[in-house]
């Protein structure tokens, strides 16, 4: 029985993780649960899974939970609560399904506590990949990919194949506006941007897919998860999201991972690997129904955020932290209706232009620059 702590339980990845735990009660047990402000959904999850360690964002939320609790559990709140759930001693593995840089400190504390981490929270790897990977090596813990592309790549690699890889090929759907020109992006609405053609996901990542920043973050995520130089990471437009990613080897062979666009597949694999479990309620891929798969060379001018992310990743040091923080703030302003879609990339570009380079940043540097970058981006609209 694998004991699981889950942070970000009320989100898209969180709810699908609970679906996997629910469908395999003989394999998995939820012992720790953390969410933000969605007390109603969180409370339903608590009643169903009865975790011993619980946390939410606010004291008021924690008080509400304590009033309704029908069994004995520890209920915490805020950043400390999030960290306690992430590093909970009774858990074998942490599923990190929070959105954004907020996941960094919980990840580091979970690694320090010796837990393997199934990581969906790509922003943590983007902002502090060198710290997270060094600490995990030192502690002998594993970072197991949940992101569909990285799960696919992991499944196309095998022991000792690293030296024979010529390229990791990340596939990109193109997001909600893939068939529009840059000119046509000027007046797009939040509602339009939230309509991803293939995946049902949280709001922030859906906007990132539309700007192609999601793929940019994934390039940096791949660099850290697979210890691969940027020169060996490529992105290919593939509008069907059936091939989740590929690995090309030095002899020209390409191994690909195919499946329906269902995040429960990589989540379940991250929890069960190297074994595989029946995906209960999962649809099988019927290739005769798909008929044809399409691929296009990436246009880095059309999808400028991808170029910004590649450049920031290559520059390294503090620059990916600036990219991520500026993007998180700009996307949140877009979702609040305060800026236009194309201003997201403008704001990220401007923050990158104005930032001061710093090599080998410490955790303190990263937290400081993250906060400062958010303030700077906010000042662009005031
Ligand atoms: N959704 C998907 O299919 C995929 C997502 N990912 C990545 O996984 C991560 C999660 O994405 P997704 O599930 O879509 O995001 P959602 O926005 O749907 O969920 C985010 C979760 O994080 C919680 N949360 C947010 N802020 C805090 C906080 N300050 N303290 C505690 N909890 C907090 C939210 O709680 P609450 O709502 O209660 O406030 C919610 O449970 C992202 O990094 C994303 O890029 C990667 C691949 C696919
Ligand atoms: C499901 C998943 O992993 C997302 O990151 C997905 O890849 C988004 O799709 P695109 O970024 O390719 O539009
Ligand atoms: Mn992905």
TrEMBL record:
Per the record, the pathway is: Isoprenoid biosynthesis; isopentenyl diphosphate biosynthesis via DXP pathway; isopentenyl diphosphate from 1-deoxy-D-xylulose 5-phosphate: step 1/6
Requisite cofactors? Mg(2+); Mn(2+)
Q: Which Gene3D superfamilies match?
A: 1.10.1740.10, NAD(P)-binding Rossmann-like Domain (3.40.50.720)
- Name of protein: 1-deoxy-D-xylulose 5-phosphate reductoisomerase
Q: Which UniProt keywords apply?
A: Isomerase, Isoprene biosynthesis, Magnesium, Manganese, Metal-binding, NADP, Oxidoreductase
Annotated positions binding Mn(2+): 147, 149, 218
Q: Which gene encodes it?
A: dxr
Q: Which reaction does it catalyse?
A: 2-C-methyl-D-erythritol 4-phosphate + NADP(+) = 1-deoxy-D-xylulose 5-phosphate + NADPH + H(+)
GO biological processes: isopentenyl diphosphate biosynthetic process, methylerythritol 4-phosphate pathway involved in terpenoid biosynthetic process
Q: Where on this chain does NADPH bind? A: 10-13, 36, 38, 121, 123, 202
This entry's Enzyme Commission designation comes to 1.1.1.267
Enzyme class of the recorded protein, top EC level: oxidoreductase
Q: Which Pfam families match?
A: DXP_redisom_C (PF08436), DXP_reductoisom (PF02670), DXPR_C (PF13288)
Q: Say what the protein does.
A: Catalyzes the NADPH-dependent rearrangement and reduction of 1-deoxy-D-xylulose-5-phosphate (DXP) to 2-C-methyl-D-erythritol 4-phosphate (MEP).
* Amino acids binding 1-deoxy-D-xylulose 5-phosphate: 122, 148-149, 173, 196, 209, 214-215, 218
